[in-house]
Specification:
The chain is mostly helical. The chain is built from eleven helices and four strands; from the N terminus they run αααααββααααββαα.
Amino acid sequence: METTRRDFLAGAITVAGAPIAAGASKAGEAGQNGEHAHAHDHDHQDVPSDVALRVMALESLLVEKGLVDKSALDALVDTYEHKIGPRNGARVVARAWNDTSYKQRLLSNADHAIAELGYSGMQGEHMVVVENTPSVHNIVVCTLCSCYPWPVLGLPPVWYKSPPYRSRTVIDPRGVLREFGVVLPEHVEVRVWDSTAEIRYLVLPERPPDTAHLNEQELALLVTRDAMVGVARDLPSRQGDRA
């Protein structure tokens, strides 16, 4: 899957898209005078910010002087990106699969339901959970920057922040999904949700078949970050089946 993402980022062509309203983007509309239908509370730019440039410069200097081990930094970032955050979201999903009443609370008031498990805070306010079904597939993007639910998914992956993903997901969601290895039948509706500084989305994947015997902890091991963003659909029915 990592190779697929690299191929996607290397081969994708950035397409300039029209401003898209927040929410399912079947008919995203921009306001008059070019104002976007959803506003972020921070700047959007393709080049790194001054702070980001300073951090990169400081990191390079520390690594060069032997004061910091780059592999240790990479391991730390990987932990936050792939383990701490996604593990929290996986627990939310597993609880919803295993507890019908919790699932109803999660879909009706995600903030409160997620907080029941102790996950809340900055970048996780005003959450909305959207459910995949046999006839609907949801995918999440932030068209203007990289708004992302940190408390449940950790740090956003590089491909999520890339211009190709941000523009093409709205314009050609099925094409982007194919590049992540997800080929959907024509009868499956694709809904694109545009995260903003005000609302962040989490996909509730379908529960894999033949998992009725698994407990909540075992179910959580099957849930992937990509499935909770919507760039993966079919989950394994046991941990050993995960790619």
